[in-house]
Amino acid sequence: MKKYFLILTMAFTIVFMGCSDQLERTPVDSLVEETAYRTVGDLQLGLNGAINGYSPNQLVAFNSIFTDNIKLGYDNGGQELNTYNQILNADTGDRGLWASRYGAINDFNRLLEAASAITPGTLEVDQYNNILAQCYAFRALMHYELLLYYGFNFLDDSALGVPYVDYVSAVALPARNTTSEVLIGIQADLDNVLALLPVGTNDINFATADFVTFLRARIALESGDYPGAINFAGDIIANYPLANAEQYLAMYRNDANTVEVIWKYDSALGANLGLFSTWNFNGPGPFMEMSNELGGLLEDSDVRSTVNIDPASVPDDNEFIVGKYGLNTDEQAINDFKAMRVSEAYLIRAEAYARTMQFGVLSQNDVFAVRSIRNTSAVMPSHTSIQTALVDILAERRLELAYEGHRYTDIKRMKSVLNIGIDRDASDCVGAVPCELAINSERWIFPVPTVEINANPNIGQAAGY
Question: In this structure, is residue 3 part of a structural domain?
Fold first, then answer.
């Protein structure tokens, strides 16, 4: 979505009314809710600012560095060592995700509250409804991500999740809602999106009806609603083609092709996500590199090798620079984040097929659809059991969704069935760096930030922190 910045300049003015004893003093040196949003145009500016407050960077960084997709770079000077050593920061809730997402939720809640006091003009109704729809959509997405990382068990309706916050309050001390309660709130928000979106809404920089369907596919997979995952993913697959090799390169090299994109986060000059800097300095040398294991898995016949491995890499020396968000034709690393792509929908459906014992033709066909369009040497996989199917799907997700914020949660979702944790190649974890994260580690759940625990007695900390 385009980045717009609301710059509020306040004039500090005192108007003296001659010798009158009655001075009319209107406070203009502060911004209060009653005056912040007065028109639909104000709401639009507020929405743009609220969306701009959401960043995928924390999850992109964490999912790569904490797992088996990254090793120390040759120019590392101490950057990202805690995450690389699989240490979760209880002070910040790790990478500030808790504060970031609840801060964004608060922004969207304030917009919804302000909108309730504004009556749009006849020509503003569609814009007004779209603003409301976007608020509900992104509030749902924020709660989903929080539940995914801080919730105790996505598959258990009665497990403690996260606070579902759909109100504005400066004094509330919310407790954790259950998984079921959070999901009910999310689905209600998504219902509101569909009810409010104007007919024909199709800007992939913002939420659309397909954004809702895609998010529901993800939720269904995580919550064990596999028939739902099959149906929602199927709806996406029916409406979006997979990018061919030329289109795929254009999608990542210049943001020039979006044929398979359902939703993307739009970067622009002056409002750039800066994903390149997740692993690389602006000057020479990376501080984190692609792991040797992942670099070895990317074949020359696979277009994803060209996208993910920077041309400056020296594979023969096990030097793999992450290039997915590299320099574009303007020689600047300004890259959109393709947050929802149809290739993921294929892999969601493949996993849901496997988990419902349809791991023969159906699951392997969906994996092959993605693999064959990316890799000219691809062969049809053989899914003979739920285990062989999930191992293959996990491997394909690793290649297809590399550096897009999925690896940690993918392993977390499959670890109990496959009896695996994080298992780094020995060459990617030299010295005292841990090579494994056990299946029963407490670090599969994020800690709530210390400041939240200290301020809110109703929030229970996850075990082990």
Answer: no
Is 116 inside a domain boundary? yes
CB-CB contact of 422 with 83 (8 Å)? no
CATH code of the domain in which 91 resides? 1.25.40.390
Expressed as residue numbers, the domain containing 397 is 41-264+338-453
Strand spans (E) along 344-423 = 422-423
Report if pTM > 0.90: yes
88: nearest Cα among 385, 452, 417, 445: 445
Max distance between CA atoms of the chain, in angstroms, equals: 92
How many domains, the chain? Answer: 1
Q: Looking at residue 137, what DSSP letter applies?
A: H
**Residue 211: inside a domain:** yes
> pLDDT tens, position by position, for the chain (465 residues)?
444 333 333 332 333 233 333 333 334 344 456 668 999 999 999 999 999 989 999 999 999 999 999 999 999 999 999 999 999 999 888 999 999 999 999 999 999 999 999 999 999 999 999 999 999 999 999 999 999 999 999 999 999 999 999 999 989 999 999 999 999 999 999 999 999 999 999 999 999 999 999 999 999 999 999 999 999 999 999 999 999 999 999 999 889 999 999 999 988 766 788 999 999 998 668 999 999 999 999 999 999 999 999 999 999 999 999 999 987 655 577 899 999 999 999 999 999 999 999 998 999 999 999 999 999 999 999 999 999 999 999 999 999 999 999 999 999 999 999 999 999 999 999 999 999 999 999 999 999 999 999 999 999 999 999
Q: CA triplet 414, 415, 419: central angle to 5 degrees?
A: 125
